[in-house]
Amino acid sequence: MNTWTIFKRELTSYFTQLTAYAVIVIFGLLSVGLAFTFGSFWRYEDASLSYSFFWWHPLLLMILAPAVTMRLWSDEHRTGTIELLGTMPVSMGSAILGKFFASAFVWLIALALTFPIVVSVNWLGDPDNWTIFSGYLGSFIVCCTFLAISSLVSAFTRDQVVALIVSVAICFILTFCGIDPVINEVRRSGSAETVNLLSTLGVYSHFLDATRGLIRLPSLIYFIGLISVCLVGTNLVLKSQRA
Amino acid sequence: MIEVKDLKKQFGQKVAVDNLSFSVKKGEVLGFLGPNGAGKSTTMRMVTGFLPVTAGEIEICGISMIGSPTEAKRKIGYLPESAPLYNDMTVRGFLRFCASMQGLKGAARATAVDEAIETCFLESVASQSIDTLSKGYRHRTCLAQSLLHNPEVLVLDEPTDGLDPNQKSEVRKLIKRLGEDRAILFSTHILEEVSAACTRAVIVDQGNIVADGTPDELEKQGGGSLSELFRKVTSQESPAA
Fold first, then answer.
1. What mean pLDDT is predicted for residues B16-36?
2. Which structural domain range is residue A99 located in?
3. From A12, A83, A90, residue closest to B50, measured CB to CB
4. What is the maximal distance between C-alpha atoms in chain B?
5. Which of B121, B150, B179 is at the close of a domain?
6. Does B71 share its domain with B186?
7. Phi, psi values for residue A53, rounded to 5°
8. Choosing among A87, A158, A238, which should be mutated to test the B contact, i.e. which has the most B CBs within 10 A?
């Protein structure tokens, strides 16, 4: 009940402060724009959208997702509203979930509004729509992971800019440690164990499986585990700040 | 209705509140006086369940704040010191949100919001965005949220801070009126407020209660002046808050 109340308040706030519109428009333009330019959509005739469209998503999300959530807790600390929330008959866990679900919902809308590219591939050819759906699922879960990370970071500080910079840095590391050029470079000089470790820790190997239509259990455990750790961590940080 | 026993709060090595005990009964308005940094806000934050206690016991209407915080918090209306609000909401929207958080729904919520708006004289700004409000209205909006669920206990941290003399007088009258059938704990460092609104007052210094009594009793102890007593029992150089 209280999670729903907080979810509604946060979601309304994203739209009254125009954050949601900015994210939806910028993500839509960049993701579709990149697919038709650097993604070489026409050259590869990539009906599954794996490389031309979805491949760019973690790169965009590592910056845009923290931009949405940087204020999640830092703003509550800065304005003192954390004291209101902390003295209402609600658990901090339900507040954390309400805020997290609201930011995830904004991203669900942003991802859904890229539908013209799906309509286009269906009009141009005969794509495997399950693979496309799985790609979207992969993008959404990567997005949720980055949102949970920046929720945790924003619990540490009342400064939104610090929250943004630190969150982007963490998401950048998670994105780039599993990306092909980095993995190839490490493969040349490092051991096989290091290569395995990097691709397991990075989001790309898990994400790319999803864009190919493979939702693997280890990948689900990886993402859901990271999200859970970050949300539980947010709760612990908020509690420890009051101790 | 508020029972505080041997309350202690320590931040690292610093003892902010030291073995504080007091009680506030129904129909009583307890003024919590003290210099800046005396531990007033820390005590109020513990009483309202925002800060965990280092030691001691807090009971609100017989419910332990430490054992059953959610149930105990339902009994309390709280106005924090800085009157924090969500600036992107309207006054009515904010009050509706707070009422929902207190578990009110439908018609009960609408009635509670309307009554709080009326009680705190917010009709003229009810549809206005909070970030456009003056300090006085912001304070009253935050006070209104503390009254929504008709709590048996009110904890008000410097409720008249930043208000103009007319608003101060209105809020004091309101506190007095609300205190007739509730227990109110309110902090201030404005001594005139004690005789204007309190039935009893305690003076806190460096985390300890150094004087306790009705406004008349305290004035007598100070030789006819409450400010004299205040100067006598509190340290001149208080630690930073």
1. 90
2. 2-242
3. A83
4. 55
5. B150
6. yes
7. -115, -60
8. A87
Give the count of alpha carbons within 13 A of B187, CB side only: 23
Q: Do residue A5 and residue B71 have CB atoms under 8 angstroms apart?
A: no
Residues of B within 8 A of A89 (CB-CB) are: 70-71, 73-74, 101-103
Q: Where are the beta strands (DSSP E) in A97-222?
A: none
B170 exposure class (CB count in 10 Å sphere: 0-12, 13-18, 19+): middle
Q: What tokens were used for B208?
A: 């300890």
Q: What is the ipTM of this complex?
A: 0.87
* Chain A contact set for B71 (CB, 8 A): 89
**Residue B85 contacts A where some CB pair is shorter than 8 Å:** yes
Confidence of residue A204 (pLDDT cuts 50, 70, 90): confident
* Contact: B49, A86; criterion CB under 8 Å: yes
Cβ contact A79–B85 (<8 Å):
yes
Q: What is the DSSP code (8-state) at residue A98?
A: H
Q: Which of B229, B232, B212 is nearest to B220 (CA)?
A: B229
Structural domain boundaries, residue B108: 86-150
Residue B15 lies in a domain: yes
In a domain, B125, yes or no: yes
Whether the CB-CB separation of B160 and B168 falls below 8 Å is answered with yes
If one compares B93 and A123, the residue with the highest pLDDT of the two is B93
- Residue B66, both tokens: 């430490």
Nearest chain B alpha carbon to A241 = B51
- Whether B192 maps to a domain, the answer reads yes
B168 — pLDDT class (breaks 50, 70, 90): confident
- Comparing alpha-carbon positions, the chain A residue that sits nearest to B143 is A84
